[in-house]
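Open question from group meeting: does this chain pack into something compact, or does most of it stay loose? Before anyone orders reagents, we agreed to write out a predicted structure and look at it together. Recording both the input and the output here so the notebook holds the full record.
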Amino acid sequence: MASKSQRVVVITGAPRGLGLEWARQLSQDPKNFIIARMGTFQLPSGSYETLQYALDNTTHTSNKVLASQSACPKALNFHEFYAFATLRSGD
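Structure tokens returned:
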């Protein structure tokens, strides 16, 4: 656990790109306590599992989500489906 003199840094995109570089640079300072998420969360089986693509990348757009509304599981209403799928959308 971090001490009072340490700074806690949470990096969620650490497997590659800027997130990885930030983790590397910030870890050089012993005052930093780094928490890095290395990978993608996996959705459990159930209503949201068809939305795994929304966690895996940010290349989808809100228009793509609207166009795929037929994929909305019956256990979710469309507003839940849209809100979750566009959380990390690229637009």
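Observations to bring back to the group:
Strands lie at 7-11, 32-36.
The chain has a mean pLDDT of 84.
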